[in-house]
Design goal:
Length: about 120
């Protein structure tokens, strides 16, 4: 359970950094408490999307993965962030990704920040 909470908080921090840096990604909450709750809920949605949908998309894109030597992974990550934005909109959360290019840049930032934070907060495996 602690591992799940740590990974969710790491994703929340990574999404917050991406929303702070990338122009087309926005957290439109007014106060910091609501924004914090929003980014944690978005991180939960992002985790569900990555757990449930990403493996299926990766399986069907295996030929493209081999053809592009793995570079299609960046596109898949961007689509997962964009799908998270769509689901957040359906749940009336104040998180929006406006287009594919911001989703691509945001997914790169989320990946880098999450990787760095996972180095700092390593699992006990």
């Amino acid at each position: 359970m602690l591992r799940f909470v740590v990974k969710t908080l790491i994703n929340a921090a990574a999404i917050w950094v991406a929303a702070s840096i990338v122009q087309g990604i926005s957290l439109t909450s007014a106060d910091w408490q609501h924004q914090t709750l929003t980014v944690v809920l978005v991180a939960l949605i992002f985790g569900v999307v990555n757990f449930a949908i990403k493996p299926i998309v990766k399986l069907f894109s295996l030929p493209l993965f081999l053809l592009t030597l793995g570079l299609i992974t960046f596109v898949i990550n961007a689509l997962m962030l964009w799908l998270t934005s769509w689901a957040s909109g359906k749940l009336n959360l104040d998180f929006h990704v406006n287009g594919f290019v911001p989703a691509l840049l945001g997914s790169l930032i989320v990946s880098i920040v999450a990787w760095a934070l996972h180095l700092v907060f390593q699992d006990e495996d």
